[in-house]
Write a sequence for this structure.
């Protein structure tokens, strides 16, 4: 389905380009902004992580109950990431890398270092997508931006309990793989995506994740994750540099 910007991706509100040389940010919207929505999912999962489970063959309820219990004591996470975005139709692949800081309930800071430097910031009300090389920033409404995303936005609502999440998503324990528990999340709604998480069996944080959509697969691996790091709240307030074009998404 084409977006209102004419891009052949199903859900792409507020995307920015990943290739140098694109004349206008809105025109080519692949890669990084799609990935940014995915970082939110991963950040949400990281906020549910904790050490303490080492069962040989746990159930989904075993794993999630402990993750839910730990979530009350976790306010923020930070981690580095490597990522591959594979497009089904064109068979193109794009590799990204960067860092993420995520703080409850919806404060987000993403700095993508390659293939194109990009900064994405949200304070839970607005989201700013800034590409320095184009000297342009897109400003969108947080709820609208999340609502048009492949990411399961409801995972950001940490006020929900596990029972509520179970009413919206089907959780399956796939098995173990190289010392990691593999979980599969499938929406109970008509959304056409699945999310697979590789949960570290010792620390219970998502070491790897894969989002399978109808036209794209996003595989992300985390590095150097930290729980409750010290965070300056100013990090989630974007100040456009002088001379930068600010484009508000209608």
């Amino acid at each position: 389905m084409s977006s209102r910007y004419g891009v052949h991706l199903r859900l792409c509100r507020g995307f920015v380009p990943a290739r140098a040389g694109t004349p206008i940010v809105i025109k080519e919207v692949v890669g990084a902004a799609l990935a940014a929505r995915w970082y939110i999912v991963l950040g949400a999962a990281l906020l549910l992580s904790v050490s303490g489970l080492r069962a040989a063959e746990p159930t989904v309820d075993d794993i999630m109950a402990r993750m839910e219990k730990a979530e009350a004591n976790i306010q923020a996470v930070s981690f580095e990431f490597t990522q591959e975005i594979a497009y089904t139709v064109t068979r193109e692949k794009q590799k990204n890398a960067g860092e993420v800081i995520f703080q409850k309930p919806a404060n987000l800071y993403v700095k993508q270092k390659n293939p194109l430097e990009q900064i994405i910031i949200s304070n839970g009300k607005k989201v700013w997508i800034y590409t320095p090389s184009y000297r342009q920033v897109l400003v969108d409404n947080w709820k609208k931006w999340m609502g048009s995303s492949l990411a399961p936005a409801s995972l950001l609502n940490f006020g929900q309990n596990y029972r509520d999440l179970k009413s919206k998503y089907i959780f399956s324990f796939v098995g173990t793989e190289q010392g990691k528990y593999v979980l599969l999340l499938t929406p109970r709604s008509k959304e056409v995506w699945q999310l697979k998480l590789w949960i570290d069996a010792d620390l219970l944080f998502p070491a790897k994740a894969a989002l399978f959509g109808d036209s794209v697969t996003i595989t992300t691996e985390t590095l150097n994750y930290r729980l409750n790091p010290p965070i300056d709240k100013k990090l989630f307030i974007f100040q456009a540099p002088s001379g930068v074009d600010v484009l508000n998404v209608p």
Notes: The longest strand covers residues 76-87.
